[in-house]
């Protein structure tokens, strides 16, 4: 997490989430102070661009409408516009896909949210006070396990030099969990809430154990193909973004950003590796909240939220519950992976969605402006 003048803790941590979600919950929406123009969506996209983002693209959908807007360039120093339906790394928004697969398996009776990690992954979460026999699957998905986040230990995600040296490096999930196990837990399981990507790497390993097939295979078979998400993929170790896309720029907490588009995302399996588009994410969120992916009992589990005090909002199972500026709340999940930042959300009834992404870290107000766009667009009504 980061703010002005601070070093970020880890890029897949819901980027700038403490500041952004606290702003959402307290109504600190600076971008909304600009006068409304003829096209509110374009005005809000321009406001994000004005905070320092290289490129911005947003899409909003409702049952009878689909609107989009863009600003900035697809590549720094060029006049090439942001591509329509361009692909980008969705970062932590991946977690909602992973939680959906786990909850489908629960609905099929193949596992339980109260199963322990030790039950499915014997000996994997052990050492330095870590004990998988005391941690449940629910606590993984809810970020109440206490397990340390591994991503601050990944050189490619934490400095320009580390990125250049290790952007093609492959990590196995077991290797990643092993790195996390070098550190004692932050707290006893269930005692508190703290965001950790390691939780979802473990969830991916459990999906493999339950089904006998990889996390990527299950996400493709259960979500991507059935919903026709033609521009969404689980890249595995493949470092390139195929198809139309804008370049991504990462600053690593400094004042200078570099092109970080190319990356082997194996360190983010289950937690942040998916590539998608605004349109595909909107379709996913709609299908999720209108009950096409989960039975009512499992959707209730996903959307039953607990306080996330460090963020000032609430968190369910792979979904955040975020206040709307017009009252009530919506469900969504921000994400980041090396310069690509996304913020997406859906109304409780699944009838309206909004997804925006930027292709750089931007300035200190960029994430807040993205949150403002999603909240305000979800509050709008259309005939």
Strand % is 15-25%
Number of contiguous helices? 12
Characterize the main sheet. 9 strands, antiparallel
- Uncertain segments of ≥5 residues (pLDDT<50)? 1-16, 25-37
Layout of strands and helices, then pairs:
Elements: H1 17-26, H2 40-50, E1 55-62, E2 65-72, E3 88-89, H3 94-107, H4 117-120, E4 126-127, E5 130-131, H5 137-142, H6 160-166, H7 173-180, H8 197-211, H9 215-224, E6 249-250, E7 258-259, E8 275-276, H10 278-289, H11 296-303, E9 306-308, E10 313-315, E11 320-323, E12 329-332, E13 335-337, E14 340-346, E15 353-358, H12 366-379
Antiparallel strand pairs: 1-2, 1-15, 3-8, 4-5, 6-7, 9-10, 10-11, 11-12, 12-14, 13-14, 14-15
Summarize the structure in words.
The protein is an alpha+beta fold and 383 residues long. It has one domain: DD-peptidase/beta-lactamase superfamily (Beta-lactamase). It is 31% helix and 15% strand. It contains twelve helices and 15 strands. The strands form four sheets. Strands 1, 2, 9, 10, 11, 12, 13, 14 and 15 form a nine-stranded antiparallel sheet that branches. It has a two-stranded antiparallel sheet with strand order 3-8. The model is unreliable at 1-16 and 25-37 (pLDDT under 50).
